[in-house]
Fold:
Amino acid sequence: MSGDPSQTVFFRAVLHPNRSLSPRGFRLLMIAAGGLSLALGIGFFLAGAWPIVGFLGLDVLLLWLAFRMSYRSGRLYETVELTDSALTVERVEPKGRARRWSFQPAWLRVRMDDPPRHNSQIVISSHGQSLVVGSFLAPEERLDFAKALNGALDRARRPGHLAGA
Structure:
């Protein structure tokens, strides 16, 4: 992110949403769901309840669509980088659109509840602007990230490190 080689990078992290089911696990789940629906569908068809077969197929299709949407949203990521002169956050949406925010590290505050709760957020703020980062992380991961970023900010703020200080 920082194209200037003269800048000292104190912290850099790329945050990705968790996806607990691997692509292989997804295939196995879909095979199992499809096989179960097929077996049930054959049973209902032979019993004369043939309209049920369509609903069983619809269930498998909806399950597949839900997982595809989840995997697509999993392409979101955030890059957080702290250098001598700026803390830069770049968020890349699943469709590839990137947004970028920059904060002056001397005045930056990073807040997070400790102990973390389910709805706790990492809030970066400076000069009346604030930004939530890592909202897709688990609460413990958010706390670890906030502590690491605060530690890097402390190192960056030591005398002689901040540009213009």
